[in-house]
């Protein structure tokens, strides 16, 4: 009932959903909304010592210049690269929506499946772009400009990386035959986890503290990757890094 009510509410904005502007505006607005709380923390942390206790790299400082640089870069990628592709997709595969919402268990299963598949795809992509020097220099190096991450560094990347990760996120719901509502919720969750990965804070309610047995790496896992470069290639979960021997912890 809850999912059907939510889906009926979303379908009430059918004209917006079918617009070629919607995918880019949706992803950008969700991204900036999730970044905002961490931007506030970054602005307050120099003045409030208790906030700094949660920073992973406590000596790091995020300036306005760094924030604006990352934000401008993200906006550029959305306007120059993502929006034209969104329009092409709009012509090639017009949006179609069914009236019935997915079942709760099917939605959860599909979201988890999309997330696990994306985690694998990005791990392979990421590993290759570190192990092959030309790939790193040409495509991935820009994302490693900041060795101490903050939320707005999430989408500070080159065109190839932006398009590659966008392709993985976009194609997985299609491959798995997901309901449009499931697809939207996967996008929202994926964006949140990406922002949290780069936020630079180890908060008491962080995802890696909620998932048991060290199965999920979270912000400390990914922050260490930006600091050391040669470990922790999976974006979210830790099993691929364990299998490939590339898992490192702050205590290592």
Automatic annotation (TrEMBL):
Superkingdom as given in the UniProt entry: Eukaryota
Swiss-Prot/TrEMBL keywords: Membrane, Transmembrane, Transmembrane helix
One example GO MF annotation: iron ion binding
Gene Ontology cellular-component annotations: membrane
GO biological process: lipid biosynthetic process
Annotated localization: Membrane
Transmembrane segments annotated in the record for this chain: 20-44, 65-87, 107-128
Cross-referenced InterPro entries: Fatty_acid_hydroxylase (IPR006694), Sterol_Desaturase_Related (IPR050307)
Stretches assigned to the Fatty acid hydroxylase domain: 111-246
Protein's recorded name: Fatty acid hydroxylase domain-containing protein
Organism, scientific name: Coregonus suidteri
